[in-house]
Amino acid sequence: MKKLNFILIIFILLIIYIYVSFITLIPDNIILLKGENLQIRNLPGIRFIYTASTSNNNINTNNAEITLFENIYLKNISITTMEDMEVVPVGKIIGLKLYTNGVLIVGMSEIEDKNNILNKPYENSDIEEGDTILKINEKEVENIDILKNIVNESKGENLELTLLRNGNVITTSIKPIETNDNNYKLGLWVKDAATGVGTMTFYEPSSNSFAVLGHGITDSDTDSLINIDSGELVTSRIISVKKGEIDNPGEIKGTIVNQQTIGSVTKNTQFGVYGVLNNFSELNIDTSKKVKVALRDEIKEGDAKILCALDNSNITKEYDIKIEKIYKDNEYNNKSMLIRVTDKELLNKTGGIIRGLSGAPIIQNEKFVGAITNVLVSNPEIGYAIFADLMIKQINID
Fold first, then answer.
1. Which of 113, 214, 277, 338 could bridge to 263 as Cys pair (CB 3.0-4.6 Å)?
2. Which parts of the chain sit beneath pLDDT 70?
3. β-strands 132-136, 111-112: how paired?
4. Phi, psi of 54 (to 5 degrees)
5. pLDDT (tens digit, 9 = 90+) per residue, 156-186?
6. 316: closest CA among 85, 87, 86, 94?
């Protein structure tokens, strides 16, 4: 009997744990497009359906309550509903300059002190690659030059570092080592900026907002999302287009040297890079070519088109693709749809999806449905795309 009671208690606790975990995973704040359904019914007894609507074409925010068996209160959530949105699909290659909030640690190495002895000053400091140094001794570290000055002025005294790691702020200390050239060093490889080229996905005229890439920019050394403080959107010039092959991805190579700044970057997220466009005339964006943003229920498997420019004429062309699979419930990454390039002209030029095409907008039934994000290395004709709504919602997330 005791054994039976014990098993029953364990079973009840397990059920409670499952429900608590499920409720915890529901965001406190949710953004919906007008007409989009929010359904929460993954567990017995929980069924919450909310259809987004707006009044007078404004953005509205409402509170909603989730209950168990309609009687037991579980959670309140804030639901922001956005009006029908129209954007201008762009599909043109642009350049990005991102400046980090602090300096990013991308590596560590031994250093030789003034007595020619190798040291690892970071060894017992709890510092990890991918950490961002925000402050040293409460002084903000905005760039590498400031970091060097603070370290040299320390004269070898212990320094207190404020670090950002996976969204959490931590503190640690480290003792600089004096080298043969009378400088002090920490043995850390750091950087404070990242540059590159990609495809602009869309321009939203009412807010002058833009979206690029459909995925975030990560550090190549740590593979972590770069935490930016600011950034610039600049014009770009294509140098070459390398055709993709099986197990050898292609690439659009471009340069941003001597190019013009046309906007500011405000966010680097897993769903793309966002900011404000100050000079859309430089990209020859025709604001009359606005299209509506498709809801997920409107996206269908089958024919669609991507919009992109593959030379310096700044003229975009439409190319045929097929949407082969739709992951309708995806909210967590940029692999919302599986797509295949079918256009013979594009296949001849690029072999399919190549680096630099990330962000190319996808149009189906005259609506913006998403953007290219990734290529399958094993087959460059196939890749992934992100839902349009995931990108649009980033504009209104602080």
1. 277
2. 1-4, 19, 22-23, 25-64, 70, 78, 80-82, 220-223, 397-398
3. unpaired
4. -130, 155
5. 888 898 888 877 888 888 888 888 888 888 8
6. 94
Domain range list for the chain: 2-82, 86-97+193-394, 110-186
Nearest to 340 by CA among 378, 294, 304: 304
| Prediction pTM value | 0.76
The answer to whether 215 is a known catalytic residue is: yes
- The three-state secondary structure class of 392 is helix
Residues 207-244 have pLDDT tens digits of 889 999 988 887 766 667 777 778 888 888 888 888 98
Please identify which of the residues 125, 209, 236, 358 carries the catalytic annotation. Answer: 358
**Cα separation, 40 vs 351, whole angstroms:** 41
> Which of the residues 131, 215, 236, 336 is marked catalytic?
215
Give the separation between CA 208 and CA 266, rounded to whole angstroms: 13
Which entry of 113, 126, 229, 343 is annotated as an active-site residue?
343
Query: What per-residue confidence (pLDDT) applies to 110?
Result: 86
* CATH domain 86-97+193-394 topology: Thrombin, subunit H (2.40.10)
CATH topology of domain 110-186: Pdz3 Domain (2.30.42)
Decide if 358 is catalytic: yes
Active site residue 281: no
Give the separation between CA 319 and CA 306, rounded to whole angstroms.
5
